[in-house]
Structures are given as structure tokens and as C-alpha cells.
Amino acid sequence: MTDKRLEKFSMGIGDRFGHQGRAQLRAMQAARAEGIEIVPVWNKSFREHSIIGTRPADVRAEADAAVSAMGWKHSYYVDADHINFKNVESFIDCSDFFTLDVAEEIGHPAESKEMEAFVRSCRDFLGTLTIPGIERPFVISEKTLEAAAAKYLFAVQQAGRIYRHLAGKKGTGTFITEVSMDETDSPQTPVELLLILSAIAREGIPAQTIAPKFTGRFNKGVDYVGNLEQFEKEFNEDLAVIAFAVKEFGLPGNLKLSVHSGSDKFSIYGPIRRAIHRFGAGLHLKTAGTTWLEELIGLAEAGGEGLAIAKEVYAKALENRQALCAPYATVIDIDAAQLPAPKVVDQWDGKRFAAALRHNPRCPDYNPHFRQLLHVGYKVAAQMGRRFTDALERFEEEIAKHVSANLLERHIRPVFGKGA
């Protein structure tokens, strides 16, 4: 059996309620017609399953059904998103892509003798290290190696344990492995990323994507907040480090960066596109809640019961704001004073509701605080049960139009398009 090999460009397509698979594939088919070859990776985390009441097998069923209905002839994957030892089991049978989230283990020291062995294995890098594609050389000391070992080695070892557990259950080469370290306090430096990749190779993890922490804020559903020049510098340096590490450590040749909470980060799409073209590099872009928000936009613009549901979701999300926001506190910035009162929203027609929600910073009615609250408010829709999902089916044509256009026009073309 040939080992699974993730294609150069891939996109994690979240779908909270499992109804937009065909619309998402339609966007990717349109992209292929334009010469942009991307493969879809359906992703849904344990947290999202828990909130909505779905199971990992439901994501596999949605993906398979959409692929069949749309006549998709290319690769596709189902990602067990942000899994760890505590929740991996229910994903094993139905997933062929595993995002090993070990951010919580960062900073936990490994055994002293293991850290010492790791430092010894990296001593060839002591002194001045020049990495092609990065202008200035790095000066690496014994303290540099020891600090990286203390901060990251245990986390990588935990990724290795999860990987070996999966390989034992599924078989080596039958799934794609990603290592995720993005949900942590500070970005990894190029040297730290290099040493992390060295540790990944030592653990025998055939990582095909890695998700580091980048500078700036990657808030859910809204644009990037941070220094664009610094982000572009970091992103280019990370690509250079990966290319160097692949050769140095024998990691998979298709190893690429994964950008989490990647949807709607419009201001960094240009820098990302320039960088991947400059290096001839691949990219995995993870999106999730942007599709759920397009469902709300479609419901609002459909009017009638669709608009009523959208308004009710907002009113209940506002009422339960603290509980809904708590799990996402590190990836949202909501000013409660900027949230309109439900009695104000009740006066809006569908176009006005959609304008407040749609991510168009040039529109005077756009409200990023309103958008972020609704992004984390999908639990309210889940509690509506069949009333909500029946509305998704009733207004499918209107919703699908928004879902497809959002992925193609606002995400795929700006990031993966041919033009620089």
C-alpha cells in the first residue's frame, strides 16, 4: 500500500452542522477550472462535536456523500482536529488526517537524560548557522539548545506517543500527521522551529504539516491583527527552515506550514501567497467557522423564518455571551459596548443583518464584534435542533451560494491564486 501523501495545497474546511460539503466542493471545483489545485480536508474538533452533539463518523459520512454527489475525482481527507490522548479514540476509525495538538505540553520538562541526549544530537548546530533563504545567520549556543529542549522536547515526545498509538491501530502510512503548536503564548523563533523539527524527526513522526505559533492575533472569523511586516518575515523564515530541515533530518519532502484559524485573515493572504510562490512551498490553510457564518448570512437574506432564526441566534448568544466566549477567550476580542441590543436587531431586514455580519471591512454596517459573537454562538443553533437544520435544507440554494462564493473569492483565490 502506498503511503498517504498530502498534496501541495490543501484547505481545512470546517462545517459545524454538516450541510455545506457540496457547496464547499463546488468552490474547489471552480478553483480547479482556474488552474488552482487544492484538496479538501474536512475538519471538526472534539470540542465542536461535544457542543453540537455530533460524532466524528458524521464528518466522514458528510465528506463521502459530498464527494459522491459532486463527482469529485481527487483526493480528500477527514481530519481529527486538535486531538490528544484524552479524545483520540473516537476519531481513529473514520479519520485519515490527525492534528496532534501538544500545545498544552509546551514548557513541561522531559526527563533530564532525554534532554541531555537531545542537546548532544544538536551540537552540530553550535556556533553560526546559515539557512538558505534567511539573510542573517543565527548564533546558536549550548544554552539555546538547552532552552529549546526544556520548552519543547516533552511536547514533541507526546506527539510521538500519540502518533505511535495511531500507527499501531491504523497502520503506518495510512494517515496524514500534523503537529500543532499554535495555541501557545509566544511565536517560535526560526531556531526553535528548527530544533522542534529535529525532535520530530528523532521521534520518528512523519509529519507532513506543522502548525507553529505566528506573531499577532488570529481571532476567530475576523482579520489578522498584528505587524504585517513582522508576520511576513516570520512566515518566510519558517518556510526556509522547513526546506532546510527536510534535507537535514530526512523529514517528508512535502512537509509544509499549516495556518490555523486561517479563515478571514485577509491582510496576510498576500504575504502568504508571495512566500509560497517564492519558495515553491505547499500550504495547509485551516478554516472552520467562516462557513457557519455564511449559513447565518444565507438564512438572514432568505427572509421569513430564516431571518427569524438568525435574529434568535444572536439574541440568545448575547444573553449567554460569557459562557459562549469562555472556551474561545484567547482567540476573540469582543467589545460588549459595540454589540447591538436585540430590539435594535429586530428592526433589521435580512440585508442589514447580513451587512453587519459579512466580513467586509469597507462596509459601514460591518460589525466585527457582532461577527465574533455569532462565530462562537453556534451552540445556540445546535440547541434549536431540527428547527435549525431544517432551515438549512429549506434555504439551501441561498446558503450554498454564499458558502461557495466566500471560499472561492475571499479565501482560495487570494491565497492560492496564480497572480502575485
Explain what you see.
By secondary structure, this protein is of the alpha/beta class. The chain folds into two domains: 9-290 and 408-416, Alpha-Beta Barrel (TIM Barrel), CATH 3.20.20.70; 292-399, no CATH class. The protein contains 17 helices and ten strands. It has helices at 21-33, 46-52, 56-70, 112-121, 142-170, 190-202, 228-249, 266-279, 289-302, 304-319, 321-325, 342-345, 350-357, 368-375, 378-383, 386-394, 396-416, and strands at 9-14, 39-45, 77-83, 97-101, 127-129, 138-140, 176-180, 209-211, 256-259, 283-287. The strands form two sheets. An eight-stranded parallel β-barrel has the order 1-2-3-4-7-8-9-10, surrounded by six helices. Helix 1 (21-33) crosses helix 17, helix 7 (228-249) runs parallel beside helix 8 and helix 9 (289-302) packs across helix 10. The longest helix is centred in the middle third of the chain and has 29 residues, at 142-170. It is globular and about 65 Å long.
